Amino acid sequence: MSNRETITEELGPEAAEADGQAKSSEAVERGPVEMTVGEVVDLNEDQTATDRHPISPILKLREEVRGELRRQAAERAEDGGSKDVSAEPSPEADEPASGSLAHARDVLERLRARVRAQVLGRDDVIDLVLVALLADGHVLLEDFPGSGKTTLAKSLGTSIIDAVSVDTEVDTEVDTVVDGEDAPPIAPFRRIQFTPDLLPSDVTGVSIFNATDHTFQFRQGPIFAHVVLADEINRTSPKVQAAMLEAMAEKQVTVDNVTYALDPLFFVIATQNPLDLAGTYPLPVAQLDRFLFKIRMFHIDRGAELEVLETWRDRRDAEREDLPKVSRDEVLAARAAVDQWVKIDGRIKEALVDIAQTIRADDRVLQGCSTRSLVLILPALQALAALRGRDYVSTDDLATLIPRVLGHRLEPAPGLSNVDEIIDDALAGAVEGLSRSTLRRR
Q: Cβ(226)–Cβ(265) under 8 Å?
């Protein structure tokens, strides 16, 4: 084995290269004779170990090079790893740090791109769904069959990866199941078709008797998922709707007097048909109040519908590998970042209270909006501001979300069916007050 091979084996190719450079420099300083001897000793690999003659100055230099390389390696280890100052910066260096507002925007943009690639002509609805996801709310979609509701929910659910699991170990003091690693993983997406004969256990899960060890084991229902599509939720009985109410409000289900925790990312997209109401059970006000948004969807325009026909095969068969997915932890980190970094001015909160008070005092309203609705709209305003690239909530954000948040929470007086005019009147006064306060500060 040659000296170069020995150095390569002991210290790696970098040491061998440095050794060669050092020997060449030493040979030049010593003159052509010593360089020739050094080259012969180093390059003649056919010689045996007894045939090679040691040249002490070169060996001394090699030891110095080895010592220097060891010292540099130790310094790099202390700094947390090897660093190559001549290397190009990695792409990860430009990525926003997790927990920052920039990272939250990046998460929203990735989700938006993936959903828009599958659902065409629904950009405003997609943005509202993403706002609800980031605000930890739920969405009720009211539209005709075949309008893309299932596709929207499925594309959102399959865009979120890295599912976690729920353990079956019970805390005996509170009978609540805590997070763990032994149960089946949480599914990214589940669809529940609600029918009149559906049972609560069909949604939440059921305890099954194990004849081997004579114990009951809980089998998770479809509600244990990141994104759940509750299709035609108004077609099921109030008993099943009550089970959904607990899951949406508390992120938990109770089976056989034992409470099982859902994933923190748990997000419901429910649908109902506005026309075919035969055999349906209208959602109670208490459950309507659990939905952050009620979005009335309409038919898409001609251009978008034509694009759907032209691209339906590609969107059905192709998996968009060029559009990166988002992990569950990234979505939760984005929620925390938006809550921390997007500011809500006190005057925005005053405007919210003024809108609620004005609506409740209106003679055209039998039941006004709840205080809970005002609390739920705060993170939604922050999420919309982040989606629009701002770190503060503006009047435009307020005007966009107020009709979506309050529209399904109001009960109009007899003879009135549309509450949009009532909301617009209350919103106009609040926006005018905000404008005046801004002018006074200037």
A: yes
Tokens 């809970």 label which residue?
A: 372
Residue with tokens 């949009």: 420
**Would you call 181 exposed, middle or buried from its count of C-beta atoms within 10 A (0-12, 13-18, 19+)?**
exposed
325: number of Cβ within 10 Å: 16
Question: What are residue 293's DSSP bridge partners?
Answer: 139
Structural domains of the chain sorted by starting position, each given as residue range(s) with its CATH number in brackets = 3-78 (no CATH), 101-334 (3.40.50.300), 342-441 (1.10.8.80)
d(CA 403, CA 44): 86
Q: State how far the Cα of 399 lies from the Cα of 431, in Å rounded to an integer.
A: 8
Report helix, strand or coil for 253. strand
326, 161 Cβ separation under 8 angstroms = yes
Taking the C-alpha atoms of residue 135 and residue 417, their distance in angstroms, rounded to an integer, is 29
CA distance 108 to 207: 38
pTM score = 0.72
* pLDDT tens digits, one per residue of 97-138: 667 899 999 999 999 999 999 899 999 999 999 999 999 999
Q: Can you tell me the distance from the alpha carbon of 92 to that of 102, in angstroms, rounded to the nearest whole number?
A: 14
Q: Where are the beta strands (DSSP E) in 9-101?
A: none
